[in-house]
Amino acid sequence: MSAKDGSSATIVLATRVSAAFQAKLAERYELVGPLPPPFAESVATVPAAEAARARVVITMGTVAAPGLALAHLPALGLVCCVGSGFEGVDLAHARNRRIVVTHSPAANASAVADLAVGLMIATVRRIPSAAAFLRRGDWKGHFAGRFPSASSLTGRKVGIYGLGAIGERIASRALALETEVGYHNRRPRGDVPYRYFASLLDLASWADVLVVAVRADAGNRHAVNAGVLAALGPQGHVVNIARGWVIEEAALVRALQEGTIAGVGLDVYEHEPAVPAELLALDNVALTPHIAGNTLETDRAMREMVCANIAAFLAGQPVPNPVPGSLPAYPRVA
Predict the structure, then answer these.
(1) Known active-site residue 186
(2) Pick the catalytic residue: 16, 290, 300, 332?
(3) Does the annotation mark 300 as catalytic?
(4) Which of 55, 103, 243, 303 is catalytic?
(5) Fold: same for 10-107+295-314 and 109-287
(6) Which residues, 6+ apart, have CB-to-CB distance to 300 below 8 Å?
(7) pLDDT, tens digit, for every residue of 155-211?
(8) Catalytic residue of the set 178, 272, 297, 304
(9) Is 272 among the catalytic positions?
(10) Which CATH superfamily is domain 109-287 in?
(11) Whole-prediction pTM value?
(12) Phi/psi at 131 (nearest 5 deg)?
């Protein structure tokens, strides 16, 4: 903990942040934490005097912050989510208490789009399997001993589920790879040239590669299910850089094992950090450990957005990045 002058606000870290970010916060604010997971339990152990001073919580969308947990902080006025996701925060509780909730929209969009395209290339061109082939010494240096040919991305149909800030960047990158782009949102957008599909099933039936970039929302849980995977078909690939639980993971493993789809590129998983052993054992997968937004540039951008939201809130001004539907409010009056 770092204590400053009497005017310093107290901030509860509900999750770990980078060392550089924590040091920057500690220069200006009193810090409590980072609290160990799960936050819903550890926040109850914060001493009453510190809990009574806490005005701000810094968290991530994947951290569960239910109303019962936030209730342990009676002076709380601001919840800052690092990154674009905010699904773990009890927004109804926040609205009832006039707690402002913010996030860092688009701060990591380009970085996440980069990895999405990397995973798309990796799964379609079977790069992990080819690398394993090389390491085993199976490459004999002549045609018969070469790795089997994979399909090209050129001319393929890329279906993007969720054409938000990240989805848009994936689409522009996919076009540069000479693909055709379609998308599914809750409603069509009039400002993009891509083909719109009214349902996720229709998009999967059309696409060769289904990229999951939808906003984290409880309504999207298991949206990509066995039926959607069957519609994608045996030459189809799935890429997920959104949230693991958007895909029904057990159905995905079965689809890969049985050849219902050709391959997958995943950065996120349904029960992180656990990854099914059956998935790890497959050779038609490209897997990364939830690193899509983890770049130096993204970390800097998200730090700046979080700090701007905190500064505005404490100065009694509207925050620059409120979560849609939350309160663009001023500091809570105790």
Answers:
(1) no
(2) 290
(3) no
(4) 243
(5) yes
(6) none
(7) 999 999 999 999 999 999 999 999 999 999 999 999 999 999 999 999 999 999 999
(8) 272
(9) yes
(10) NAD(P)-binding Rossmann-like Domain (3.40.50.720)
(11) 0.85
(12) -65, -40
